[in-house]
Amino acid sequence: MALVRTIATMLVIGVLTVVFAAILILAALIGVPNRSGSIYDVLPRVWARCALWAGGVTVRLHGLDALPPDGTFIFVCNHVSLFDILALAGWLPRNNFVAKAELFKIPVFGTGLRILGTVPMERTNQKAAFGAYDVAADRIKSGSSVVVFPEGTRGTDYSIRRFKKGPFVLAIKAGVPIVPVVIYGTIGILPKGKLVMHPGPIDVYLLEQVPTAGLTYDDRDTLAHDVSDRMQTVMDNLYLNRK
């Protein structure tokens, strides 16, 4: 049953990716503006929600009501599964992801990512990585929040791992609040290194905003530690210390 559901989910993702990417390419060619509520917002959300529905996955989003509806943020998220991305894409407010550059080499899918404004990240090149955050800062100035995974790669458990500095340099440069995001449940659905998925719930917690106004480059480490500590505390209190 799990294998059948996995195959069905991959088929849904594959078909919708081709269809939706083609629609986005056409929209870009005819000059449809990329703004809040446009096709560039709606299609990725529908794509993610359809994939989750096919996989028997439900998402419970906590804390969205505390965010100003017209605010711009940097969402800093823990990362343990590919399903983290689907959960965030399906439910977070208007945003652009910072994603590994390898994804942009996939035919059709990569073109769709570029049209959506996804920012490519060269993980093995520090100079290029910081250049990507400059691009992300431009996205923020245009009114779109940015989603980052400061741990870099997917982990194998829910402990918050060491953060890279780039996202916090971006936050300070952009001067917008950080919203720490704690994701739980995706390891049970599809852990790193596995191919067969299982249905289940995902909980996404949007924590209290962390302001960055007035901070300088020298504050990046303190800011990263603060955000990491907040996320680990929530993870411990909700899940890890209950076992």
Task: Give a brief outline of the structure.
By secondary structure, the protein is of the alpha/beta class. The protein contains eight helices and seven strands; from the N terminus they run H-H-E-E-H-E-H-E-H-E-H-E-H-E-H. Helix 1 packs antiparallel against helix 2 and helix 2 (39-54) packs across helix 3.
Task: Give structural notes.
This protein is of the alpha/beta class and about 240 residues long. It has one domain: Glycerol-3-phosphate (1)-acyltransferase, CATH 3.40.1130. Helices cover about 45% and strands about 15% of the residues. It has eight helices and seven strands; from the N terminus they run ααββαβαβαβαβαβα. Strands 1-7-6-2-5-3-4 form a seven-stranded mixed sheet, with helices on both faces. The chain is globular.
Q: How much is the radius of gyration in Å?
A: 17 Å
Name of the top-level CATH class: Alpha Beta
Order of helices and strands: HHEEHEHEHEHEHEH
Question: What is the CA–CA distance across the termini?
Answer: 29 Å
Number of domains: 1
